[in-house]
Amino acid sequence: MADDHILTTDGLTKEFAGFVAVRNVALRVRRHSIHALIGPNGAGKTTCFNLLTKFLRPTRGRILYNGRDITAERSADIARLGMVRSFQISAVFPHLTLLENVRIALQRTLGTSFHFWRSERSLDALNARAEELLDSVGLAQYRDLAAVELPYGRKRALEIATTLALDPEMMLLDEPMAGMGHEDIDKISELIRKVAARRTVLMVEHNLSVVAKLSDIITVMRRGEILAEGTYDTVSRNPEVIEAYMGTGHG
Amino acid sequence: MTWNRDMLAFLAFLALAIAAPAAVYPVFLMKVLCFALFACAFNLLVGYVGLLSFGHAMFFGGAAYISGHVVKVWGWPTELGILAGTACAALLGLVTGAIAIRRQGIYFAMVTLALAQMVFFFCLQANFTGGEDGIQAIPRRPLLGLLDIKNDLTFYYVVLAVFCAGFLVIYRTIHSPFGQVLKAIRENEPRAVSLGYRVDQYKLLAFVLSAALAGTAGATKAIVFQLASLTDVQWQMSGEVVLMTLVGGMGTVFGPIVGAGVIITMQNYLAGFGEWVLVIQGLIFVVVVLAFRRGVVGELMAWWRRRAGG
Ligand SMILES: Nc1ncnc2c1ncn2[C@@H]1O[C@H](COP(=O)(O)OP(=O)(O)O)[C@@H](O)[C@H]1O
Ligand SMILES: [Mg+2]
Fold this sequence. Notes:
Chain A contains nine helices and eleven strands.
């Protein structure tokens, strides 16, 4: 199906005490695409993510995921439906080891997460898979380090590994490359491209060369509204988009 | 590795506890053990989930009344009395927890305090609690119909066994798949949610476990002193368990035991000073908060790590 959308929103709106952070957003995310959400700071991108994953309740509008209305679902259940997000501020479990970080995500599948009488050593069965995931983001050799000890860029990589552990159908990545060095950016770009073969990725990213290289389609937001949408080439030639970026001095 | 270190510490504690009656009155030791279990149960919630309850007296005192009543009035055997107290505390924990866990931080503390005050007034008004007198002269029936626990020394070893059972339940909980999720929730709740954990359910189970074991402690205490009274349910009791846990070391496995030992010993020796005990406790609280944030055990462990690291 050419028109197979995994995620659509209609009239999605969020007001904070009268201030409209997201206004009438109609997103169409195609299955198995890498879809970028860009725009100057304060455009409402993170708020959109919070609405999609139910960390915020929309003031108005509807969200459909796989054709199912998820507007009233709870955050944890969104993840169970296969849509998993990362956060703009790196979200790791700081005093757990890298291995434990990834294992937390794998653990729910065992169905023993409420078993307070069982030894935690029963979780060792997940170690091999967790190590594989750490390896995929180049962190295997740090498995026993506490996450707090990682430099920022590596924390983002750990976050991606943890997200991948859930084998999500759709990943929402909020500025996954922020704070990363060149080398890490290339590595994570490659990883995102690889995992997107069987998944859908919606990502907020400021690094436009990454966006250009990775994304199939780009939605540009400004002041809570969708300003333009299309491939990188069409969007980057749009005078309004150029103005929006120049206007705020953002590159 | 941690396992072994904790294991050794526990064995050392056990050896000390077994030998202790040679030097210290068993009744005093039983009191320490009951409060140590109470503090350990409280610590499960504050130290491992990050929820500061200011109403744990309702579980401790509530269970004391229940076990006192069923043993004295209904003639139930001791072991069933303690179990009944535990079960009722768990049930109360389920109801109050369902109300409280949706709140965060100070609001959680305030809701638990408010609920505990309601339980206090219920206990003050209800007939079976005996009002200002409490339930007195609770009999110490032979345990399992065999073991004579009127003898303080014998009963002490029973209480030690109860404590160890409760402690091991808590220890296992911390080191279980469930405990791993609790740690994740404490470390980064939104992330745990985004990984699909319905965190309220985990918090509620932790709350119920904590309430149940606080109940075990209160029920046992009622049999030890043959008394259940308003002292056990009033808010000062909730404050005392906070103090014990802070002094010993929040979020450390053995901290609450040390904290309970310190506070109970202090209360005992300072009993002659009357109201001044409260002032001195307040001072200790201030000193701990300002200078020994990690508590006795927490500071010791930090010192040990520095020494090993440097
Ligand atoms: N919880 C909130 N309360 C009030 N205003 C908010 C809140 N969250 C975001 N905003 C506002 O909404 C606007 C959009 O923010 P955000 O979605 O974070 O932008 P972006 O991620 O595109 O930089 C900003 O002006 C921000 O100040
Ligand atoms: Mg943002």
